[in-house]
């Protein structure tokens, strides 16, 4: 007879273990693990038939919670630390709902501000924001040059998310706003899947597969100081190459997205073009799946779906919701996105050598022959 796993959790309030105190009143505990762009959240729903949560047990806003979850007889998974951000009390029946955020309300991360960053890099911007918010920056960021970046009355999180996404990076704030963790978005989709699922393994699923609005390519312009020409870098079918040069940066492809930003270097232009196309390809096929609780399914890891026909492939988890419910037990709900390399009709990440084009006698020709030779013999 197969053993039945029993859901388990541990909750600490300002460093004190209160698991046994609240267990009899717990209706549900839900941990939301977001990949990027939003803070992780912890939602706790408690019954309050005797009114103690309205009086002596009334939660203190801003108090710190730490939460672990999983199954008995197994090591519990840490969800990290959270600040209580919101309380909701309702009745009858009397119920208390506690909302806590990983990037707490006490921090200045969401305070809108204006600031200019000149002649810098993404790593420098991330480092400055981490330092000003007393966080440790974790992760490797390529030294891509940025001429100018302006924070337009945005919170630090919103601004950094916009700039990081532009260059193909993502991040999240963890450990109660003490760590700023960065990674390259494309790297996530190259990971080995932690689980493989077929339809019979899931209690529910749904997918959206866009058949339009997905461009064949993306172009970003870079002004070459030597040739004094505007070089247009493009990414198409997973390959990067120069697609033309002019003083206007016009493109000839109707199914190519033109990014209006200028890039200070060729590397910056290439990074932005790749990031823009990858983002659009990743958004092409998205899904939601429901299954029995599995603590190993975290935002940022990949899973493989088999037996789904054209929808089979490798998917990255963009959001994982782990809920322990008095009536339903432990369940996991995932929001997933298919990696660019798994999307139908796309090729693997293959980069061509970059040549620089210029105008000669009214015609577009290669003006950087060393780059052309590298491309030919590479």
Automatic annotation (TrEMBL):
Pfam families noted in UniProt: Phage_GPD
Coiled coil: none
Name listed for the protein in its UniProt record: Phage protein D
Organism of this sequence: Iodobacter fluviatilis
